[in-house]
Fold this protein.
Amino acid sequence: DDVEDFLIYPNQLLLQPDEQQVVTLTWVGDQELEQERPFRIIVEELNLSLGEEDDGAEEMTVKVAALTKVVKAAYVAPPEAKANVKITDAEVITNEDGEKRIKITFDNVGTAHKILKQTMIKLTPMSGGNKQTDEVKEYVPDELNGVVNILAKSQRIIEVSWPEDISSDYTEVNVSL
């Protein structure tokens, strides 16, 4: 949604080819924030073509074509904001192909976002709430090998593949960071 919490100067600009200009983005919203607020900044580049006049007619045609759309994240946070990500749930599920997967709930109880990169997890097979083996698998699942952004006071649920070197007989797992 559009918000009125930023002052953007200039809010529009006309650039010639190979020309650059700085745009200033200033937060003018609430100065007493309890937690970080996330925003998407969307900048669109438009190509303006002025059409040629037809046979002395007094009309001018303007063609507008969108060339590029840039979307960036912006975060406004109080100085003491900190992320605090925990795994609050891990569930063994079977998808429609009969393949076992692990559904992991990441919970950020902190006041700032956290970007997880190449996230290592510890997986312990369980059954009936008890550890079934001393085998603990520490690895980075393919689904967590990239970048995962978890906003402040929010959850992110990610399904990961069952590890090949752990028996698929287990019905429960304990997962931790």
Q: What stands out?
A: The chain is about 0% helix and 50% strand. The first strand starts at residue 6 and ends at 9.
